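Translate structure to sequence.
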């Protein structure tokens, strides 16, 4: 079994579940260094040697692979050393945005907020014109995502704008 851990770090910080527990349910766990941790690219596979060897074969068959990756690995190490714990800031910022949109911030577990809206398209346009970039996830919902590049001040400013809309 392969577990795609693109947002495993967010789940770990939000739930305090040890990473080992996530890994115990799969033969191979892929973890992403770029989504929440701020590395420009990078993923790692965790598992036993045989499972990783098979995963490498499939990765190459499907077109994955890169040369001269040392500089990217350094960015990944920096992300692991400096950005895992700060994901809690992203979660707190998402709570501010949720509250501004009329949701209970306690219902937001990570850095993603989905807001039901009957006017999702119009809301996205209005938010964009006011300087807040969000996206529609259908005609009746919008999605807000906080990340490394969204500061507390940015989140507060966005929350004030969204509350007015």
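Result:
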């Amino acid at each position: 079994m392969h577990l795609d851990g693109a947002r495993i770090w967010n789940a770990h910080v939000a739930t305090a579940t040890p990473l080992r527990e996530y890994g115990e349910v799969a033969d191979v766990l892929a973890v992403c260094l770029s989504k929440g941790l701020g590395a420009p690219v990078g993923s790692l596979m965790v598992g036993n040697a045989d499972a990783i060897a098979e995963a490498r074969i499939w990765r190459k068959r499907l077109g994955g692979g890169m040369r001269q990756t040392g500089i990217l690995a350094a960015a990944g190490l920096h992300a692991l050393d400096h950005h895992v714990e700060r994901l809690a800031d992203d979660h707190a910022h998402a709570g501010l945005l949720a509250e501004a949109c009329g949701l209970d911030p306690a219902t937001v577990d990570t850095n993603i907020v989905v807001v039901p809206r009957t006017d999702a398209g119009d809301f996205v346009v209005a938010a964009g014109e006011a300087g807040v970039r969000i996206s529609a996830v259908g005609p009746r919902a919008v999605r807000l995502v906080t990340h490394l590049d969204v500061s507390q001040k940015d989140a507060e400013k966005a929350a004030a704008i969204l509350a007015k809309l």
